[in-house]
């Protein structure tokens, strides 16, 4: 990547993210003495990047060089030598092996992305004094972190809205983010124990994804405190037991509930029918005992119902029931104890989509799953990954 910007000394903002730029970062970049914002992320740049060279750009407050083949080199002496207060730093996939020492003196950070590196061990003690009042977005996913040392319960960044700790080696209890956190992603860790009752205070939470852990105990009754805010609840592949609390759901914005592969039991609360935005409910491989949930039939956004491998029983239709399910796409009730006829009217109400006429839609339960994807700063709430 070459810059023909040698004489553009007044340039203050360069945003080239999400392109297909290749090669090394040109040294001519460091002639832009007034540069304040630089985003080169999500390209195909490669080579060695010296932190000290960027520090020479004394007005630079945001820089993101996240990539797949870059190597960021920092020096331990930078902790005291760096006097710049950065607002945003993005070093995803920069082959870092530890928390860079220069972060010690950063008190104005709003955005910090250290994901997809090779950082091992505990989050260092001094990180608890880094931008505690300003940090809004923190992504430490896809590293080899094992925990937070003695700071294992309450995280210190009081303004944090987005927190991603997924795909690490974090052990022990589920850490508790600040009360105003909106998106909390901590899947794919060996976490144990139950969800602490202190989670009840997270009344702003929109996404809770703690899939693929070893969390146990009963489902927390306090989730009704989330009210109309929560959109995604993904607790799949844990060891939760007991029933879904009847008081759990107030309705609102819930789009996805995934409790797949737990040890949940009992009946489905009829209050789930208040979730008018619900698109997908996956309860496969649990121990629920109930009749067919006719009460979901009126939900106009409902697309996915998976009850596979439980203990549901009785008829799927009776003369007194009215089945609608107008937008159903996946309907899996296999490996239960249902009986009687499967009514044709259940399928007559389903809308035929134009794309399905070209690519017939099929479902393979072994290879289909839900993924909560994230963009650079925000979440796409629901993506269905299916075998076609």
Strand order across the largest sheet: 1-3-5-7-8-10-12-13-14-16-18-20-22-24
Radius of gyration: 24 Å
Report the major sheet.
14 strands, parallel
Q: List how many beta strands DSSP finds.
A: 27
Notes on the protein architecture:
This protein has 388 residues and is mainly β. It has a domain at 1-118: Ribonuclease Inhibitor (Leucine-rich repeat, LRR (right-handed beta-alpha superhelix)). The protein contains four helices and 27 strands. The strands form six sheets. It has a 14-stranded parallel β-sheet with strand order 1-3-5-7-8-10-12-13-14-16-18-20-22-24, with no helix packed on it. Strands 15-17-19-21 form a four-stranded parallel β-sheet, with no helix packed on it. A three-stranded parallel β-sheet has the order 2-4-6. The radius of gyration is 24 Å and the shape is elongated. The model is unreliable at 366-373 and 375-388 (pLDDT under 50).
Tags for this model:
388 residues; mainly beta; Leucine-rich repeat, LRR (right-handed beta-alpha superhelix)
Short description:
The chain has a domain at 1-118: Ribonuclease Inhibitor (Leucine-rich repeat, LRR (right-handed beta-alpha superhelix)). Helix content is 5%, strand content 24%.
Blueprint (SSEs and pairs):
Blueprint: E1 13-15, E2 22-23, E3 37-39, E4 44-50, H1 51-55, E5 62-64, E6 69-73, H2 78-81, E7 88-90, E8 111-113, E9 120-122, E10 137-139, E11 144-147, E12 162-164, E13 183-185, E14 207-209, E15 216-218, E16 232-234, E17 239-242, E18 256-258, E19 263-266, E20 280-282, E21 287-288, E22 304-306, E23 313-315, E24 330-332, E25 337-339, H3 345-348, H4 354-358, E26 369-374, E27 379-385
Parallel strand pairs: 1-3, 2-4, 3-5, 4-6, 5-7, 7-8, 8-10, 9-11, 10-12, 12-13, 13-14, 14-16, 15-17, 16-18, 17-19, 18-20, 19-21, 20-22, 22-24, 23-25
Antiparallel strand pairs: 26-27
């Amino acid at each position: 990547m070459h810059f023909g910007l040698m004489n553009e000394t007044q340039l203050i903002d360069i945003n080239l993210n999400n392109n297909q730029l290749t090669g090394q970062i040109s040294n001519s970049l460091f002639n832009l003495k007034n540069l304040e914002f630089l985003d080169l992320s999500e390209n195909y740049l490669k080579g060695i990047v010296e932190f000290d060279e960027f520090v020479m750009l004394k007005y630079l407050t945001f820089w993101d060089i996240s990539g797949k083949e870059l190597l960021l080199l920092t020096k331990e002496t930078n902790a005291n030598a760096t006097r710049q207060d950065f607002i945003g730093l993005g070093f995803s996939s920069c082959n870092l092996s530890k928390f860079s020492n220069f972060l010690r003196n950063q008190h104005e950070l709003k955005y910090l992305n250290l994901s997809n590196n090779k950082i091992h061990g505990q989050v260092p003690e001094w990180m608890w004094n880094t931008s505690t009042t300003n940090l809004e977005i923190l992504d430490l996913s896809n590293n080899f972190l094992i925990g937070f040392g003695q700071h294992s319960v309450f995280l210190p960044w009081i303004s944090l809205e987005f927190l991603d700790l997924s795909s690490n080696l974090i052990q022990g209890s589920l850490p508790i983010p600040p009360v105003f956190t909106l998106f909390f992603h901590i899947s794919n860790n060996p976490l144990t124990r139950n969800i602490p009752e202190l989670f009840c205070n997270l009344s702003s939470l929109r996404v809770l994804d703690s899939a693929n852990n070893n969390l146990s105990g009963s489902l927390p009754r306090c989730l009704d405190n989330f009210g109309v805010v929560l959109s995604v609840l993904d607790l799949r592949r844990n060891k939760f037991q007991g029933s879904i609390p009847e008081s759990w759901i107030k309705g609102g914005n819930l789009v996805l509930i995934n409790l797949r592969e737990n040890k949940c039991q009992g009946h489905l609360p009829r209050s789930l029918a208040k979730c008018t935005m619900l698109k997908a409910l996956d309860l496969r491989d649990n121990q629920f005992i109930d009749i067919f949930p006719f009460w979901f039939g009126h939900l106009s956004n409902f697309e996915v119902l998976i009850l596979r491998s439980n203990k549901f029983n009785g008829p799927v239709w009776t003369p007194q029931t009215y089945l609608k399910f107008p937008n159903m796409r996946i309907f899996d009730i296999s490996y239960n104890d249902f009986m009687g006829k499967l009514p044709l009217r259940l399928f007559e109400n389903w809308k035929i989509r134009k794309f399905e006429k070209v690519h017939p839609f099929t479902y393979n339960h072994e290879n289909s799953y839900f993924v909560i994807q994230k963009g650079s700063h925000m979440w796409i709430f629901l993506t269905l990954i299916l075998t076609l």
